[in-house]
Design goal:
By secondary structure, the protein is α/β, with parallel strands linked by helices. Helix content is 38%, strand content 11%. Bound molecules: zinc ion (ZN).
């Protein structure tokens, strides 16, 4: 006897939903059933939003998210302190910093941190674009806001070695972020304190 399951389009919808982070088999099934049973425009609106959001690009300067323009809202803003440049690991590290209002300069997202074990070397990160940026528009201060783990430390050392001699003052945020916990998970007070207590490097 053939085992009865949902029709193929529903099974495909469940399969696709399961590819999303934090969606397990039960959740995928519940969402899929909700979608096929809802009789209003909500599912169309959701699928439209997915298509629209997938055209989001990364800023050619800092690596943050932007729409179809080449520069993000931060880089194109006339109100930022352009002489301060804050280096973070991921573009997702920028929003927690922005929410605190502790920093009004510009950012540069590396796209990760140096990690020989994971085969992440300098060429895999946006380090060349950082060098080019500094050369083109030298900031007064370059602030490293990297995580306080071994890889974050290695990345900081690499950048200090690389950029010493460019005339840019280099600092790092205070070590208020616990080991292994990136900026993304740090609370606002921690971030504000980390920023105001930054220390010189080199
Ligand atoms: Zn940008």
């Amino acid at each position: 006897l053939k085992k009865i399951d949902y029709p193929e389009p529903v099974r495909e919808l469940i399969r696709q939903l399961r590819r999303m982070p934090a969606i397990g088999p039960r959740s995928a099934e519940r969402i899929a059933l909700w979608m096929i049973q809802s009789r209003d425009s909500r599912t169309v609106e959701i699928s439209d939003a997915i298509v629209k959001a997938s055209s989001i690009r990364t800023c050619s300067l800092c690596g943050f998210f932007c729409d179809d323009t080449s520069l993000c809202a931060i880089c194109s803003s006339p109100d930022r302190e352009r002489q301060l440049l804050c280096v973070v690991e991921q573009p997702t590290d920028i929003l927690p910093l922005e929410r605190t209002g502790a920093f009004r300069g510009l950012y540069h997202a590396l796209g990760g941190k140096l990690s020989p074990l994971d085969h992440v070397s300098p060429e895999d990160l946006r380090i060349e674009t950082l060098q080019a940026r500094i050369k083109q528009e030298p900031p007064q201060e370059l602030i490293l806001a990297l995580s306080a783990d071994v890889e974050g430390e290695a990345t900081a050392h690499y950048l200090v070695d690389l950029l010493t001699g460019t005339g840019t003052r280099m600092t790092r945020i205070a070590q208020g972020l616990s080991v292994g916990l990136g900026l993304e998970n740090a609370d606002e007070l921690t971030i504000t304190r980390a920023f105001s207590g930054r220390t010189p490097l080199h």
